[in-house]
Specification:
The chain has a single domain, classed as Sandwich (lipopolysaccharide transport protein A fold), CATH 2.60.450.10. The chain is mainly beta. The chain is built from one helix and ten strands, in the order αββββββββββ.
Length: 150
């Protein structure tokens, strides 16, 4: 429990942004520097909101989070400087050092400020640059749907 409290305090102090994580279960592996939350996981970070079945937080030697990995029925609502995305994926990895989300596995994404939808096997959302990169597979190309007024 000490590592979890230290993790929360460190996260709030380093990023000056409140992060709230709730789940049915919590396990901390101090020697492995891993925290595992499972069952109805809900992360609220600023205006970003993510839900999943499981969250694994990897910590560095100073107990600073270096990667958040969410799996199982992942639903997300993510904001960049200019865009607002909602969608789902099989997995999302958040890199706090680069403020980058990587969604993988049958990713569906809707830009909330328009009627645009994106589908792919991997979508990277960079909160710093606002850049979004979508990748498909050989048999599953990227799909982009939008309306054009003529």
């Amino acid at each position: 429990m000490k590592i979890f409290l230290l993790f929360l305090l460190t996260t709030v102090l380093l990023y000056a942004e409140k992060i709230t994580v709730t789940a049915d279960n919590f396990e901390a592996y101090e020697t492995k520097k891993i925290s595992v939350l499972s069952g109805h996981v809900h992360i609220k970070k600023g205006s970003d909101d993510i839900r999943a079945d499981k969250l694994v937080i990897l910590l560095d030697a100073a107990n600073k989070p270096v990667r958040y990995t969410l799996t199982g029925h992942v639903l997300f609502d993510i904001h960049t400087k200019t865009q607002h995305f909602a969608g789902n994926a099989q997995k999302i990895v958040y890199d706090p050092a680069h403020k980058r989300y990587t969604a993988e596995g049958n990713v569906f994404l809707k830009e909330q400020n328009s009627d645009k939808t994106l589908q792919g096997e991997k979508i990277v959302i960079d909160r710093v640059s606002g850049k979004t990169i979508i990748s498909g597979k050989k048999n599953k190309p990227v799909k982009f749907t939008f309306t054009v007024e003529e």
